Amino acid sequence: MSETKRRKGKSRMAFPEDYCVVDIETTGLAPEECEIIEIAAVRYRKGRKAAVFTTLIKPHNSISPFITELTGITNDMVKDAPDITSAIMDFYEFAGSDMLMGYNVNFDINFLYDNLLRCHGIYLTNDFVDVLRFSRKALPMLPNRRQTTVAAHYGIEIEGAHRAEKDCEICNACYLRLRDELKKMTEETD
What we know:
By secondary structure, the protein is an alpha/beta fold. Helices cover about 45% and strands about 15% of the residues.
């Protein structure tokens, strides 16, 4: 699906107090051809973890050795996992109308949007916040803006990265640090 056809929520430059951090692991980069193999969503209320949703998903095709090496997710781990049809609906019900947040979140949103629409005819219309945008603004001196690079800059533990729930936690820790830094930068210029 092309970007212009999607009827998804709007990208917001906001610092919400209540939100749901989302992350997925996939078999590749293209939503049209690749499959979601893990979804995690962590709900935060007033900046505190309130609830967690996480599931592995059984793909139609085997997980490649490259993806297993990157994520640690093996074909054996997903053999008894739910299929995308039930997993995507469980995610949708968990997220509700929350503002979604993630790191380079358009990637995750597009996969989730396409699968929800394909499996259930439902549009994912939640507005979303991309923490990557904050890192570009606050940390122009870093060699790159990868989540793990930003986390390392702030001394945030990254052990277990590339698993969806851990990536949600890393993203939230980066968000809180970036939010505080950007608020401080704004105060200094006022």
